[in-house]
Design brief:
Elements: H1 2-41, H2 43-46, E1 50-53, E2 56-60, H3 117-134, E3 161-162, H4 164-177, H5 182-191, E4 193-194, E5 205-207, H6 208-220
Antiparallel strand pairs: 1-2, 3-5, 4-5
Length: about 220
């Protein structure tokens, strides 16, 4: 009887010591080591790839955002501020009181099939809006000019990039709205177009946030 109690006590003691050691190693030392290494070697990425402008954080390089006008009285959906380059749609998980476009707690695709009536309507409405918004007095956008990413959301619904084709399509409108020369704005787009990763992974892309920060600087300098 005494041996049984003693053995049980020793097993409990060994288990508690193992629990304490593993808690300290796995729950304290390891996280601190990983966090320290990340901060030392990948400080920017470890802190969310934040992008700053004019001394304040304006977003993340990894998450898209909207560029809209303030809501007017009675409006439920804000209108895009057309002086800025616009991102691709963000229809991933839809909208509700928690998840609004580009302010999603979770990311995800629409999971709608290609022949889904809602998806077809969304794409047609988006294409019509892109043609209307980006046509200017001296430049008419044709429906055939509209690239796929201008009317569809990404798989995550949070893509911070657009294709060079969609950026190019917006150049005339952005130039007109900011009273800039079209060639200046096109040059800005070209300078902010990233090629394929390692030369063969993915597609060329333009980070909308980075582009709009550069646009603000150009417009503030009077287009010089």
């Amino acid at each position: 009887m005494n041996n049984s109690v003693g053995n049980t006590a020793r097993l409990l003691g060994a288990g508690l010591r193992a629990l304490l050691v593993l808690t300290v190693v796995c729950g304290v030392l390891y996280p601190l080591a990983v966090t320290g290494a990340a901060q030392a070697l990948f400080h920017d990425k470890a802190n969310g790839s934040e992008v700053s402008a004019d001394g304040e954080v304006v977003g993340s390089e990894l998450i898209g955002q909207r560029y809209d006008l303030p809501l007017k009285k009675g409006q439920e959906t804000a209108e895009p501020d057309l002086k800025w380059f616009q991102p691709r749609p963000s229809n991933g998980l839809g909208e509700n009181t928690v998840n609004t476009q580009y302010k999603l707690l979770l990311s995800g695709a629409t999971n709608l099939s290609g022949d889904n009536k809602d998806l077809i309507r969304q794409v047609k409405d988006a294409k019509a809006a892109v043609v209307k918004d980006n046509s200017t007095a001296d430049h008419r956008v044709k429906p055939s000019d509209v690239p796929a990413d201008a009317v569809t959301s990404s798989g995550s619904g949070l893509d911070p990039h657009i294709s060079p084709a969609y950026a190019d399509l917006q150049v005339h409108r952005v130039a007109a709205r900011n009273h800039l020369d079209v060639r200046q704005v096109q040059k800005l787009v070209d300078a902010h177009t990233d090629g394929r990763t390692l030369g063969f992974i993915g597609e060329p892309r333009v980070n909308v946030l980075r582009l709009n920060i550069a646009l603000k600087e150009l417009a503030g300098a009077g287009g010089s």
